[in-house]
Amino acid sequence: QLQLVESGGGLVQPGGSLRLSCAASGRTLDHYAVGWFRQAPGKEREGVSCISSSGGYTSYKDSVKGRFTISRDNAKNTVYLQMNSLKPEDTAVYYCAAGIPGCHLLNYWGKGTLVTVSS
After folding, report:
1. Helix (H) or strand (E) holding 80
2. pLDDT digit string (tens) for 57-93?
3. Predicted confidence (pLDDT) per residue in 12-21, tens digit
4. What is the 3-state secondary structure (H, E, C) of 23-76?
């Protein structure tokens, strides 16, 4: 069974940066697409970014394009989300999810990590 654990969240000032990690155990991530989602208080969960198993395909929510970068290191069984120029509206619990064969079918989920952007 694939298990995912997010880390790297925390409190950061507007304009700051954080790097989230999604570490897998139980299976290797090589064949899995991995996505990042977020849920702000009182709002529905939304997709933020996704990366294919090979890393050759990435996608981003419009509001994070140019600020967030998704990447993966299959040797470390980890996917990252580098978040720069953070805004208060990026405040949310961030989740990673994985699935086969692609970003349209992500059925393994982590428990999330909280990102708070505030001065």
Report:
1. strand 78-83
2. 999 999 999 999 999 999 999 999 999 999 999 999 9
3. 999 999 999 9
4. EEECCCCCCCEEEEEEECCCCCCEEEEEECCCCCCEEECHHHCCCEEEEEECCC
| Residue 86 CB partners (closer than 8 Å, separation 6+) | 12, 14, 15, 16, 17, 18, 67, 115, 117
- From CA 6, how far away is CA 94, in angstroms rounded? 8
Give the whole-angstrom CA distance, residue 40 versus residue 67. 18
Residue 104 has pLDDT above 90, yes or no: no
Strands 78-83 and 18-25: antiparallel
Q: Which token pair is 37?
A: 């989602």
Closest residue by Cα to residue 107 from 93, 94, 92, 96: 96
